[in-house]
Amino acid sequence: MAGAGLLNALPCPAQTAARPFPRLLVVFIGGQLRTDYLDRVNHLLTPGGFRRLMEQGAWYPDCRHQASTFTSSGVATLATGAWPQLHGIVADQWYDRAAAKPVPADAAGLLATTLASQVAAAPNTRVFIAGMDREPTALLEGRTPARGFFLQPRGQVTARGETPPWLIEFNRLHPIENYYNARWVALGAGADVPPLRVLTWDSAQPAQFYALYRSSPFAQAGQFAFVRELIEREGLGQGETTDFVGVVLGSLAELGHEVGADSPLVDQMVLHLDRELAFTLDSLDRCPGAGNYTLAFTAAHGAPAAPEESDRKRMAVSGEALARAIDRALSARYDTPPARTPFVERYIYPFLYLRPEAFKGRDPRELRLAAGRAALEHPAVAGFYTADGDSSHTGRWAERFRNSFHSLRSGDVMLSYQPGYVEEFGAGRGVSYGSLYNYDARVPLFLYGPPFRARVIEETIETIQIAPTLARVAGVALPSSSTGRVLAEAFAPRAARR
To answer: Which pTM does this prediction carry?
Structure first.
């Protein structure tokens, strides 16, 4: 699945002079990518990948998610130009009190229109969305008549709706069986150097192979190969209107979830990402042609470092144990007999849901504050925010809490763990996403192609500013709930755009 694509030799129809708006707008969202990853491997980057974007495009090293940084909430924020407070996707899942069960984030729960929706609403445009998983892909798409594609667990790309004939051929030519027992070798390593990983195939335990594949550079290369094939096969960017391709990459996020931010495997995956980006830019230069496309690259979140093994017991938090501790503290405060119904109905990180009957005869605001203060007694908890707007913090940190909190979905209290603390999943390893800290919140943003100029812009910006900026580039209306400004400083002077 690696390489420059199947159809690069095909001719691209001749293009006329550059239009005011690009013929093709391509948006890549890394499942996770921290700016400092690029700093760590800067000396190993190729000229044609991230370095090309750094030197020839507008590069913001300090783009911040000023809200919770789950994959779903991050993708929805980038898609809508709004925080979870408005678009409603507060996490990868939350508790639905009416249904009395957790519900996953999906497009049906999105409470705002997306950039893709706005492009699709313009006359004669085409919108395609691709991703590793169905749910984040659907969030980028929104409620729009787009063509969606995602990766099945067995490695085949699946279309939502009708399958185009070329996709059948693509899957036939890229069977996942090619990667049974594949050796992931460090870039530049000699033949005698042991592999970083072997994607071991065992027919008795196929799920282990699929997990290894999804978190490998082979799956990442497959996503890029598919995007290049999609653009060429569908003839995108060859008309007189703007076509849109949105891509949610997944392999780096899968790997980071397993090994944390500081693993050498992450650096290797970033270097592979750099090379795939170079292949893709070369392909776009051929068709639809340099000057006829605009590309944006950012990420849904970063990642924390994995706790050291000696610190794992302390820094990996059991949500159930935390909920029980809060419940005990509330019971002790209010002198509730042991036979009474517990105060806590459910805790799904980072949201605490109190039982409705706990509010009977009590001041709701006071009870929520008591729950937040009880949580602070736990050594893993650093802060809280309540449905009434009370917080353990002030200033920008309270703003991050507020941006993350939706009145109907976030329960009664939102918690923040101490820096570096993660959820405990029972496997004794791995990290969780979703925190408010800069290691999760700070991502790079690259804006490349017309109408942007070559410039490194060191000021801190927010991820809600990306969708309105790209809406301006495409000449379409803003998404319904977008609150970010257009990044005007990234645009070239008008005379230079001709």
So the answer is: 0.94
Which residues in 44-86 belong to E strands, given as ranges? 58-64
Strands 344-348 and 461-462: unpaired
Instruction: Tell me how far apart the alpha carbons of residues 382 and 360 are, in angstroms, rounded to a whole number.
Output: 29
Q: Which residues of 292-315 are buried (b: 16+ CB within 10 A; e: fewer)?
A: bbbbbbbbbbbbbebbeeeeeeeb
Rounded CA-CA distance 407/258 in Å is: 32
Structure tokens at 197: 């990983």
pLDDT surpassing 90 at residue 174: yes
Pairing of strands 101-104, 93-96: antiparallel
Retrieve residue 204's tokens.
């008795």
Q: What is the number of other CB atoms lying within 10 angstroms of the CB of residue 172?
A: 9
pLDDT band at 429 (very low <50, low <70, confident <90, very high): confident
One-letter amino acid at 317 equals V
- Please enumerate in sequence order all residues whose Cβ is within 8 A of that of 449, keeping only pairs 6 or more positions apart, or say none: 22, 57, 291, 293, 294, 295
Tokens coding 70:
């789950």
437 pLDDT band, cuts 50/70/90, is very high
Which residue, among 422, 319, 335, has the nearest Cα to 375 in the 3D structure?
Answer: 319
Return the DSSP state at 82. S
Query: Which are the contacts of 314, defined by CB distance < 8 A and separation ≥ 6?
Result: 307, 379
Q: Which helix (H) or strand (E) holds 348?
A: strand 344-348
Q: Report pLDDT digits (tens) over 276-286.
A: 999 999 999 99
Report residue 313 CA to chain centroid gap. Answer: 28
Token couple for 486: 């257009």
Cβ-contact 368, 359 below 8 angstroms: no
Tokens found for residue 259: 């090994």
Give me 39's structure tokens. Answer: 């700093």
Average pLDDT over residues 228-235: 97
Residue 347 pairs in a beta bridge with: 352
**pLDDT confidence tier of residue 483, bands split at 50, 70 and 90:** very high
Q: What are phi and psi of 488, to 5 degrees?
A: -60, -30
pLDDT tens digits, residue range 252-268?
Answer: 999 999 999 999 999 99
* Beta bridge partner(s), residue 297: 28, 446
253: tokens are 């996020």
Q: What is the rounded average pLDDT for all residues in the chain?
A: 93
408 within 8 A of 349, measured Cβ to Cβ: no
Amino acid type, 366: E
Asked if residue 428 lies in contact with residue 392, where contact means CB atoms within 8 angstroms, the answer is: no
Query: Residue 442, SS3?
Result: strand
